[in-house]
Amino acid sequence: MLTLEAILVGLIMGVFYGLMAFGLTLIFGILKVVYFAHGESFMIGAFTYSLLALWLGVPLWLAIPSAILVGGLVGVVVERLLIRPLYEKFGDWQAMRDEYAIIVTFGLSLFLVNLANQVFGPYPFRGPELTDVARFQLGPMIIGGHRLVAGAVGVMVLGAAYLFIQHSFWGKQIRAVAQSRFGASIAGIDTRMVSMLVFALAGGHLRLRDPDPGAAPASAGAVRPARARGLR
Amino acid sequence: MSGSRLRIRNEFLASLVFLAIVALLPLWVTSPYWQGLFIISMYFALLAIAWNLLAGYTGQFSLAPTAFAMIGAYTTGLLAYHYGLSPLVGIPAAIVASGAIGMGLGRVVFRLRGPYLALTTLAFAEILRHVVRNAHEFTRGEFGLRVQALFDTHLAYYYVFLLLLAVVQTGLYLMLRSPAGLYLQAIRDDETAAASRGVNVVFWKTTAFALSGAICGIAGALNVHFAEIASPQIGHIFETGLVLASAVIGGMGTMIGPLIGAFLVEITSEQFRALGLNHMLFFAFMVIVIVRAFREGLWGLVRLALGRRRAGPARKARPAEASGS
């Protein structure tokens, strides 16, 4: 039975990593921009969720959407301030394009981790559990209640993201820009808006996480090797 | 003399002036604390110069400079710890080891560009750091490895580092003004075009990686004899961030930029630490602002003040030449 449980927990962890990878692949796959600070946007969501619930007593059904919203907002701000020159002044920036993206997002990554360290301190915060039920009995398996709920929500969000990209009007615009930025702009798609949308989606893309490690600035660092693997 | 060579010569002369000032500093600065701070600044300056050779002149964006410093540090440290060899053997061995591993890494990544290169080198650095951390039977891991000191006084280290800095800077200058320097910069500006004109891209990229690795290696080896302890912390990603910040704040792709940048970053960060503020926060912010708004860094600012706008970097100057000015 232990094996089965380990497999289930592994699958749920896979859903979380899948969610993160979804955001990363949106930015890298579609905009062809390396975004080193992706782990940190994950951290922002985790902090928002945990601190809203812990310090302000915001109910859970509100804390999760606001974590998504805050992550999305940060994504939009980053896109406007730092990433936009990459395609605005595409011509003379092209030689420096990759270098600029790497330096600026690497700097952003260090900045956000240290900002969290400075403001909240290097301590982990444990957000509230999603459910009061401590354990679920699933047939022969016993699994943590929070884990199961978080995994289920994660699967739903991944499904919704798939539907959004495949079938919605905005999703189709995103895919068009991924195929050809130039062609999409000729067809009347506002490529700047799409880029912003991509960043908002990637930034906001559900910061639901297993509360075991809690939200700590260090968790963003722990995410880094995973990101490096995910990208290659 | 072409514009690029004139620019490199001016930067070299400026950096010699800077090094001369640093050489005279111990006349006034006698406290071991400040001398130690300058020594660490020179260590970071060496790493930043090595990184700049790769990223600023060859366009190879490596995130592994401190990993090579760690290789150098542990080569000499472990040779002394396990085999009782003196630093006179250990330091040359450190240069050879880091240079060879740099060459190997260069061979592995020579096809990769941009983000793929950066991520591969980052993965290399992280893997290496974790190997050193976890192989604690051999390296003592996080406990740190005691390393014997080379000299008794700070002043001796000070001038050894300064001499090394001068040698590296001169060597770099000679290399950059030779055809080799033009090959490297051609690879940075357009790899395909460089290859089409007969530049042996693979060879020069690998050479740049090996040289950069060797410079980082000797810097790490010397620094570890100064600090008297080696730990996996040397190769931490934040250290890479400091190296990167030094080069970017000072001015990437210039000879003097990493030098002044490293001193500035190290001294300011020490002041921040004294005030209890987070220095990385400030430097990360500075890096973002400088890269976003003023990509030539502080040296560009100095040049602007001196009114030498005409001798801008080759890349910036290109549109101006095209318009016939």
Report on the architecture of this protein.
The complex is a heterodimer of chains A (232) and B (325). Chain A has 232 residues and is mostly helical. Helix content of chain A is 75%, strand content 3%. Chain A contains eleven helices and two strands. Chain A has a two-stranded antiparallel sheet with strand order 1-2. In chain A, a hairpin with a 2-residue loop joins strand 1 and strand 2. In chain A, helix 1 packs parallel to helix 7, helix 2 packs antiparallel against helix 11 and helix 6 runs antiparallel to helix 11. A two-stranded antiparallel ribbon of chain B has the order 1-2. In chain B, helix 2 packs antiparallel against helix 10 and helix 11 runs parallel beside helix 14. Chain B has 325 residues and is an all-alpha fold. Chain B contains 15 helices and two strands. At the A-B interface, helix 6 and helix 11 of A face helix 5, helix 11 and helix 13 of B.
Number of H- or I-type helical stretches of chain B: 15
Mean pLDDT of chain B: 84
Work out the radius of gyration of chain A.
19 Å
Biggest β-sheet of chain A, characterized? 2 strands, antiparallel
Secondary-structure element string of chain B:
HHHHHHEHHHHEHHHHH
Count of runs of 4 or more consecutive helical residues of chain A: 11
Helix content of chain A: over 70%
Please give the order of strands in the largest beta sheet of chain A: 1-2
The ordered string of helix (H) and strand (E) elements of chain A is HHHHHHEEHHHHH
**Total beta strand runs of chain B:** 2
Shape of chain A: globular
Classify the beta-strand content of chain A into a percent band: under 5%
**What structural class do you assign from the helix and strand content of chain B?**
mainly alpha
Biggest sheet strand order of chain B reads 1-2
Morphology call of chain B: globular
Q: How helical, in percent, are the residues of chain B?
A: over 70%
Structural class of chain A: mainly alpha
Give the oligomeric state of the chains in this entry, treating copies of one chain as homo and distinct chains as hetero: heterodimer
- What is the straight-line distance between the termini of chain B? 19 Å
Strand content of chain B: under 5%
> How far apart lie the N and C ends of chain A?
35 Å
